[in-house]
Amino acid sequence: MRIALVCLGILGFVSVGIFGYWREVVRAHNDRLQQLDVRLHVNGIRGKSSVTRLLAGVLRDGGYLTVAKTTGSAARVIGPTGEESPISRRGAATINEQIDIVAEHVSGGIEALVIECMAVRPLYQQYSQDFMVKSDITVITNVREDHQEEMGETLEEIADSMSVTIPYGGVLITAEDRPHLRDRLQANAEARGATLVYADPAAVADEDMQGFDYLQFKENVAIGLAVARILGIPRQAAIEGMWKSVPDIGVVRLRTYDIRGRRVLWVPLFAANDRESVIATFENLRAQFPPGAKVIGMLNNRHDRGRRAELFSHMVPDDLSTILDEVITLGAYEETVTATMVERGFPAERIHALGETVRPDLDQMLDTIAQLVDGPEGVLVGMVNIHTEQAEMLMEHFAHLQGEDHREELDEAREPARMPAGVARMQRAATRPAIPQVGRRRAL
């Protein structure tokens, strides 16, 4: 009996200690959030990482000391100068990471926080908004079909799931262009006493897009301009801030490489993995494809993304058969994906396995690509996901071919031209040679 009482006492003492520690962590976290002038929570199906980066650029060049955090293809913290640092994880990513980021990077002088929503399940999204971010402004970039297992099968259900991150009495910004979905978001915002602002891409001029050296969308830029209007940041400062922002690692940058004597345009379209985004991106890019060039799509499937594998196995024959001349399968689900594409009408002789059923080396991959490009020029499009052994091998090869022109995104973030105007002026002043003190009289 005495031992049981002692154990009970120890358990109670430990419980009190844990509760006290948790209470102090929550208090400190809330204090850090309260010091911020602006808190932005970026949600949506497509473009979250890109929009987070653009919004951080808008705020930096708008005069705010800003910290941003992305979750996308490579998790990053972006500091007030625009310089980036990778996020190290000892295990699987969890939404508690948001608290750690605030604790480590929201110091006394920071004025604004832009943070990408990590959560997928609606309950976790709501917890992230209500307790971790407490945003004044939430962005829902768009509503697309993805993560249906957690967020609902229909677009309306997905819109409702993301709406739990709308701030009570705050502002919701969206670039969703379908009226019935925007109306759904509007009703959800009104239920929370929030105002919906539509970021209309028609307000973005063609010249506004000329400062990007990668594929960017007017919808994303429109969101940046909407935030600038709300915060009173001049339009030109917002545009220049977005131009300076470093793109996410999965961004589409078109480059041409020599593959076995063939000129091949490489299109890394891995980050677009829902039907609407893929079709819209192809429509934007087709004008840049060499006339008459054969277009080869690489379906890169991961074991943990079976739903996407199914989606693309339908999309290729249903939506892309007039665009893709050949298809190469990489990674997992090769036999299932191939069978589905053939069943839906895509010719079997135009499908080529180079994934886990073959496990090719780099030379085998390059030989196959060169054989499929039957003319002097071709187009190679990476799709579905980034991380498989075959895709990473090919991307590493292309990065090596870039030689001195290749820049990692962390190096780009340190370029003086990308930093906010104030920081750039300070750096120029620091490197300016001292003015000789000729003829100056000594003080008495």
UniProtKB/TrEMBL annotation:
Residues 44-185 form the Mur ligase central domain. Residues 420-444 are annotated as: Disordered. SUPFAM superfamilies: MurD-like peptide ligases, catalytic domain. It comes from the Bacteria. One of its GO terms (molecular function) is ATP binding. PANTHER family: PGA SYNTHASE CAPB, UDP-N-ACETYLMURAMATE--L-ALANINE LIGASE-RELATED. One of its GO terms (cellular component) is membrane. It comes from Intrasporangium oryzae NRRL B-24470. InterPro entries: Capsule_biosynth_CapB, Mur-like_cat_sf, Mur_ligase_cen, MurCDEF_pg_biosynth. This is Capsular biosynthesis protein. Transmembrane segments: none annotated. GO terms for biological process: capsule polysaccharide biosynthetic process.
